[in-house]
TrEMBL record:
This is Circularly permuted ATP-grasp type 2 domain-containing protein. InterPro entries: ATP-dep_Glu-Cys_Ligase-2 (IPR051680), CP_ATPgrasp_2 (IPR025841), UCP005522 (IPR016450). It comes from the Bacteria. Residues 73-448 form the Circularly permuted ATP-grasp type domain. It comes from Cellvibrio zantedeschiae.
Amino acid sequence: MAKPVFYDEMFSAPDVLRPHYEAYGQWLHMLPKERLARKKAEADLTFHRLGITFAVYGEEAGTERLIPFDLLPRIIPSHEWKMLQKGLEQRVKALNLFLHDIYHGQEILRAGLIPAEQILRNAQYRPEMQGVDVPNQIYAHIAGVDMVRAGAGEFYVLEDNLRVPSGVSYMLENRKMMMRLFPELFAKHAVAPVQHYPDMLLDNLRMCAPQGVDNPTVVVLTPGSFNSAYFEHAFLAQQMGVELVEGRDLFVRDDSVYMRTTQGPKRVDVIYRRLDDDFLDPLAFRQDSMLGVAGLLSVYRAGRVTLANAIGTGVADDKSIYPYVPDMIRFYLDESPILNNVPTHMCRKPDELAYVLDNLADLVVKETHGAGGYGMLVGPAATKVEIEEFRAHLKANPSKYIAQPTLALSTCPIFVDAGIAPRHIDLRPFVLSGKDIRMVPGGLTRVALREGSLVVNSSQGGGTKDTWILEE
């Protein structure tokens, strides 16, 4: 089999820098390796002091570890970002229209573009939301869309994260760290800013307050300090200047949600919730939940509080629904998709299942409800035993899985002990939806730190790097 060719973000050919990397590449060439090593140590120490950690599940040597940060930025030229931005705006707009539709008229189901059972029997579909009107018809106020570059350099959408997308705090802290370590670089490069994201987020949350509320009280609802992304919850609350609360800090009275404060109860209008639907309200969902607020759903359905993201958004980021997003764009917007999906085999279809079973060694197979890199098979990196075990899972419950070709993800140089070496990357831009759609330039670039690995998830040992969008 021919060795795959990977698109190199920095070099167009050996020792030939791409135009948008020329100034940085020349600077990097002149930089002593010892200085990079010192800067790396300084960054690690600072991140450790800040408590920027993430849980890596399954490791016996402790549940928390430092997020590996790479010193070499990923650089994207302005014209590429403009194309990505238009495509992301189009995609998230269609996804919000889809969510409104399936909880109201269900026109897309009646048109036969998506099998009704794929929606109505989906574990993430919430019948409790049927007919509920949400402010501005926005369900996914914050979306994290995972992008990869493959082949000759074309971008693809790998998945849509619409429930509680995380990682934006690492994007912000990475930029802050780069500006601290290498201020001279930002004097030489016109790098688009990202530091205003918390202000944009707060403005977006305030705009989606219940009707008639002029000065809304916004809070961030966290499951608590044991959660893998707790640093981000606390960070965003602090940056926005709003309260970080747990379920026990809130209560429902007189069809409203209140927060306990030292001055007495204070009404809450907008909740940026960072816990899943199942745990939001023990009276409506999981009765054993100690994380939510009893009665929250009834207040939400009455339009007396806004939840971001809305209850029931998970059905739109389920991997079994992902293949239909291009159809949604055509159906709701009457436009051709700007960004392409990765070709996807739906294992619930017998002919596609047969193809997947015959080609497991060459495919990536994912659970439709999976996240964080768990419950998946990367065929080319799997052993024969792992492939056969996964084959049994597929046969037993094919509708639980989708499969995709193993993409030749683009590479970007990172700093390792031996020097500078290429590693595979992806990109997660963060899209804010309100009265309009906005985003800061770039997003979070995640890195597969192990040589040859295609898994970039932080929970699977991946790292991150700063993402530069060069302004014209």
